[in-house]
Amino acid sequence: MQSFAGRSDAGMSKDASMSRIRIHREHSLGLKAARDIAWRWAEQVEVRYAMERTVVEGKRSDTVEFMRAGVRGKLAVAPDHFDLHARLGILFAAFAGTIEGEIRRELDELLYGESQRKARGSRS
Questions:
Q1: What pLDDT shows up at residue 18?
Q2: Where are the alpha helices (DSSP H) in 7-66?
Q3: Which residues contact 114 (CB under 8 A, 6 or more apart)?
Q4: CA-CA distance, 36 to 21, in Å (whole number)?
Q5: Among 3, 18, 85, 87, which is least packed, fewest CB within 10 Å?
Q6: What pTM was computed for the model?
Q7: What's the angle, vertex CA 71, arms to CA 67 and CA 74, rounded to 5?
Q8: Cα–Cα distance for residue pair 89/82, rounded to 1 Å
Q9: Which run of H or of E encompasses 12?
Q10: pLDDT at 122
Q11: Which residues of the chain have pLDDT under 50?
Q12: pLDDT for the residue numbered 3
């Protein structure tokens, strides 16, 4: 399994009414492959969690904005990293650990799978 630098997460910080989730993942996929991963992830969360999403495509990076009642966040997509920031309202704060774990798992499954495919393709 390939390791990724910058895998440490800032984690959750809580105040009286909300939790924050921050996840950072570095990669070497380039913008096109990173964009594909981000869009697949956005489609998954839209369907699975009834999220509304908006993708803002740029020349050097993209932003995936997602929201539903009690959840709002952004996934910054760059050629060399992903940065996810989300805020959970009071009703979701009790589930912050579970929600963060699911986001990490889903994003990592897509990221590791794509990195492994890219590595195999470059050896062919």
A1: 72
A2: 30-49
A3: 29, 33, 36, 37
A4: 22
A5: 3
A6: 0.76
A7: 55
A8: 23
A9: strand 11-14
A10: 56
A11: 1-16
A12: 37
Question: Which tokens hold the place of 107?
Answer: 């994003």
Q: Which residues, 6 or more positions from 79, have their beta carbon under 8 angstroms from its beta carbon?
A: 29, 30, 31, 34, 60, 61
C-beta separation of 2 from 112 below 8 A? yes
The pLDDT of residue 118: 59
User: How far is the C-alpha of 9 from the C-alpha of 51, rounded, in Å?
Assistant: 23
The pLDDT, as a whole number, for residue 17 is 58
Q: Give tens-digit pLDDT for 21-54.
A: 999 999 999 999 999 999 999 999 899 889 999 9
Find where tokens 């986001």 sit. Answer: 103
N-term to C-term CA, the chain: 18
d(CA 16, CA 36): 37
User: In a 10 Å sphere around its CB, with 0-12 CB exposed, 13-18 middle and 19+ buried, how is residue 73 labelled?
Assistant: buried
Looking up tokens 């910054």 gives 76
What is d(CA 102, CA 50) in angstroms, rounded to the nearest whole number? 15
